[in-house]
Amino acid sequence: KSVEVPAADRFTGSVTGAATPRTLELIELWKNRNYRCPVVVECWGSKQIQLTDKTQWWGRWLINGKPIEKPYGENIWLWDDPKQFNAAAKGRRMFVKDFTRRYDHDSLFTRLVDPSWGRWLIGRQNYKSNPFQDGPANDLASRQVAVEITPLNLTGKPYDSLTNEAKITYRVVRAVSEAECQGYFDTINCWDKALMSLGPCHWTIAHPEKQDGGADVLQLGELEAFFAYVKSQQPLVFNQVFVDSGLEPNNQWSDASILNRGLRKFESQYSQLSLVNQGGVDVEKRMPIPLDRNRFDFLRSWHWLYRIEMACRTLSDLQRLMWDMARFRLRDIGAAPVGLGIKNGAGADAKIEDVFTSEQSFIWLMQWHIFKPGQVFTGGSAGSALTEIIRTSGVSLAKRTDQWTDDDEQRLLKSFAARAPSEVKDRFNRAFNCAQLTKLLYPGASGNRGTPPSASRNSFKLDTSTTTSTLGSSPF
Q1: Which of 170, 197, 310, 429 has its CA 20 to 30 A from that of 114?
Q2: pLDDT digits (tens, 9 = 90+) for 200-222
């Protein structure tokens, strides 16, 4: 049950994770009074039910016509805790009982929480024998996502109210998100090597790279860089996500060190407020969290999943900032030098946006850059795999790019299909077949059905507007 903790018995200092005398005193007091964290994660037997508004969602198993009364597991914290309750068995899901009442007035929350039970579905345990296929997951495959990426949710406007450039850019981003996050804001993956990934580009908190000895070593992630952007643009939204956690990105959005110039992407890592002894005195200091898998495993715990998932589900301003971040990627890909002696219409050295100009081309490029940026760029310019696609396409590279035709664009697309890695081809196929695009007409097209991603030359136009200014030029 919910209890009101007296003000004198609440911790009021900075969240450092250090076992200070006051912290230890309050922990002992909470233990003696049987207090517990007001956010409780449990493993329940569950099944799909139909809510009053016809939404398919999740409720408790029934035994003899009555809902079961007890969960299989209570007070779940770490990413692998549910395994002891056989949580990978059919029908078992993780639910939250949230006594903070933080979301009581959120329309999505109140619609999907059974008032007689008061619990909120957050995901399932994805468990396989492979240690890198194990952990929390919330996805479309188990029909437990709730907030779809739509023009209104992502951009703040319905599709018909967008400019032509915004419609085209949205179509590309939405197609890519179909492959990356199944087209939902609250699809969150905490079961693979990247530890946690989410959003239209499935930004990760870290990603492993094999070293010479064969070991996987964690590298900086893009998700922390996204949250640095959130902090710079919407500090109140940032605080809503990270309230009382002591964590924030190690870099400011304005820091040059947030730019990975070779791969043309933003990246950072989390930092934590810590107590550091300086001259015999404990001083609060923000320190980067070491890129150690055991440390980062906590950041894919069930409580962290709930924190981030609820932010993605309920904070519309956070969703709008994902629109900016996705367009940064398109902008920075397009602005990269191509090489190969190709010239644009003005006679200058061509950029990627001069060579590839269709919706389909930018879906290929964006999808590949998300999956393996090191295969797309080397030293900030088009890498060998990408230049090989151009060089072997059959397009006359002696022509200036403004003279290239629809046939030339088709040659480039066929070269992508022939030479891109199989994983990228699979992602492109899923993106190309995005069902939502069947409802969204390409600007100027006629008919009452949507149009698939265009292969026509110059069919891609990047929307550069934001709610405050413009996207600006690429910093890379």
Answers
A1: 197
A2: 999 999 988 877 677 778 899 99
